[in-house]
Each structure stands twice: as structure tokens, then as C-alpha cells.
């Protein structure tokens, strides 16, 4: 029993680290633009399928090369999608609602495109590192260790980017005061596009990492979108620190509920915790009143 509980805790920590990486990207978009991206889950699938194509078509077995090739593609695609579909809407009234509608349409378009291009069958990727670490009765797969390290590393890299680069500080400025940032010469339109592109990389990277543990399917991104949204709302809309705490809390909750009650109860439990939290603290764990 004790060994099973430890395994569940480890599983929750690993999933929570990847959820944190992806939820921070969604929080970043909302914090800067105050608009919700419904295509976020489809970008998760995009990362998984992109890695699968590199692995299967190009026959490249090195995950280092897969990341080197995938990240620039995700960055460029995210930037172009924002420029072509989202940026023109910001000149209109109630553009946040229009962005939600167009990204919903984009999600449906991408999901159906995945099904046409790759078929409805599930795709999988090999482990990033074979073998396992055995400590007494505990067995921890090297793959899970690498996933955890890469996820935490991605979050720390993102934090360094926000605090130590000109673009990162511009993102923070626009999130805090868009009008003031524009007055002092910060290119707000570029910041919006860069934010969208960076978030696409973060969720796409999460798709590559989780594709080793779970299958990639054309509509698999909706589950990730729901979880990322729950984490974002639970932590506080626009609060990156809140999203990090919420990701690990809900990752642990998911692991224990799935272990004890079954995976069909996971989303029910997540929404129950979210609704209870919002009833007590409407702004989320670390959100602030707007």
C-alpha cells in the first residue's frame, strides 16, 4: 500500500510538472491579451504529431534533434497564426470575444486536418530514455525522470526569459499596463504575437513529452485544453505563480483520484475542486481583483 501511494505521488508530480509548463503558456496569453485561446489543445496535438513525423518519416531517433527541429517550427507557426488570424481582430470592438470564436474554429480545423493527414489511429513515440531506477521496492522509469527535469527546466528558462531579456520585460509591462507600455514605446503588437508564439512552443513541447506516456490522437488536445483552463482558473486568471501551484495540486489530485476511483472520475473531481475554490475565493488561489 505504501509503495503504491509513493508511486501515485511520483506520477502526480511528473504530470503536474508538464501541466505546469502548458498551463503557464495559457496563463501568459490571457495575462497579456485578456483573450482565451480555444486552439491551445490543438497546438498540444501539433507538437505530438510533429515529433511523430520527425521520428517516423525522417527516421530520427534522437530526442535532442527532435526538439531542435520542432521548437522553431512551433514558434514560427504560432507567430504566423497570431499575425494572420488574431492580430486583425484587435482593431475591432469586443475583439476578445471574436478571438475566442476564431480560435474555436481553428481548433476544429486543425483537429479535422490531423484526422485526414494522420488517420484516426493513435500514434505513439518511444521512450526518451529506456530503463528504470530501482531503490528497494520503488521503481522509477528514467523516462519519467527526464520528463520531470525537462518540464521544470522549461519553466525555469521561461522565468529567466521574463526577468532577464528585453522581450520578456516587455511582455511583463504589457501584461501590467498595455496603455502605459505603448506610451513608453514598447511594441505592443509584437509582444502579442511573441506571447502567442511562445505559448505555442510551451504547449507543443508538453505534447512531445506526454506523447511518450500517452497516445497522440486528432482530438486529444481537448482534454489538455480543459485541464489547462481548470489550472489557469484555479490558480488565478493571469497569475503565472498561481498556475504553477495549481498545476502540481491538480496533478496530484488527478493521480490519487485516478488510482482510487478510476480515470473516469478525474475531470469530475477537478471541476468539483475548481468550483469549490471559486465559490470561496472567486479570484483563484493567487489571482487579483481586476
TrEMBL record:
Top-level taxon of the source organism: Bacteria
Subcellular location field: Cell membrane
Alphabetized GO MF terms: transmembrane transporter activity
Family to which the UniProt record says this protein belongs: Belongs to the binding-protein-dependent transport system permease family. LivHM subfamily.
Membrane topology, as annotated: Multi-pass membrane protein
Organism: Desulfamplus magnetovallimortis
Pfam families per the UniProt record, alphabetical: BPD_transp_2
Gene Ontology terms: biological process: amino acid transport
Record's keyword annotation contains rRNA processing: no
Signal sequence, start to end: none
InterPro entries in the record: ABC_transp_permease, BCAA_transport_permease
Gene Ontology cellular-component terms listed: plasma membrane
Alphabetical UniProt keywords: Amino-acid transport, Cell membrane, Membrane, Transmembrane, Transmembrane helix, Transport
Name of the protein described by the UniProt record: Inner-membrane translocator
Lineage, top ranks: Bacteria, Pseudomonadati, Thermodesulfobacteriota, Desulfobacteria, Desulfobacterales
Transmembrane segments: 12-32, 52-80, 101-120, 140-162, 190-212, 224-250, 257-280
Chief location: membrane
Amino acid at each position: 500500500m505504501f509503495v503504491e501511494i509513493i508511486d501515485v505521488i511520483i506520477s502526480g508530480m511528473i504530470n503536474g510538472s508538464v501541466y505546469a509548463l502548458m498551463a503557464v503558456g495559457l496563463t501568459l496569453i490571457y495575462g497579456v491579451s485578456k483573450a482565451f485561446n480555444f486552439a491551445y489543445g490543438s497546438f498540444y496535438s501539433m507538437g505530438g504529431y510533429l515529433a511523430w513525423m520527425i521520428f517516423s518519416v525522417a527516421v530520427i531517433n534522437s530526442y535532442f534533434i527532435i526538439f531542435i527541429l520542432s521548437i522553431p517550427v512551433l514558434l514560427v507557426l504560432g507567430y504566423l497564426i497570431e499575425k494572420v488570424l488574431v492580430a486583425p481582430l484587435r482593431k475591432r470592438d469586443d475583439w476578445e470575444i471574436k478571438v475566442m470564436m476564431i480560435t474555436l474554429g481553428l481548433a476544429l480545423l486543425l483537429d479535422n486536418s490531423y484526422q485526414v493527414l494522420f488517420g484516426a489511429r493513435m500514434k505513439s513515440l518511444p521512450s526518451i530514455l529506456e530503463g528504470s531506477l530501482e531503490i528497494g521496492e520503488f521503481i522509477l522509469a528514467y523516462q519519467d525522470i527526464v520528463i520531470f527535469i525537462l518540464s521544470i527546466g522549461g519553466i525555469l528558462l521561461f522565468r529567466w526569459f521574463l526577468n532577464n531579456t528585453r522581450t520578456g520585460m516587455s511582455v511583463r509591462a504589457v501584461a501590467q499596463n498595455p496603455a502605459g507600455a505603448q506610451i513608453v514605446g514598447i511594441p505592443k503588437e509584437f509582444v502579442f504575437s511573441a506571447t502567442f508564439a511562445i505559448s505555442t512552443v510551451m504547449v507543443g513541447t508538453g505534447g512531445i513529452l506526454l506523447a511518450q506516456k500517452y497516445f497522440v490522437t486528432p482530438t486529444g488536445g481537448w482534454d489538455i485544453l480543459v485541464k489547462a483552463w481548470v489550472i489557469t482558473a484555479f490558480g488565478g486568471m493571469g497569475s503565472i505563480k498561481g498556475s504553477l501551484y495549481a498545476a502540481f495540486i491538480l496533478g496530484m489530485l488527478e493521480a490519487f483520484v485516478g488510482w482510487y476511483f478510476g480515470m473516469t472520475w478525474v475531470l469530475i473531481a477537478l471541476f468539483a475542486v475548481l468550483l469549490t475554490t471559486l465559490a470561496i475565493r472567486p479570484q483563484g488561489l493567487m489571482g487579483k481583483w481586476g
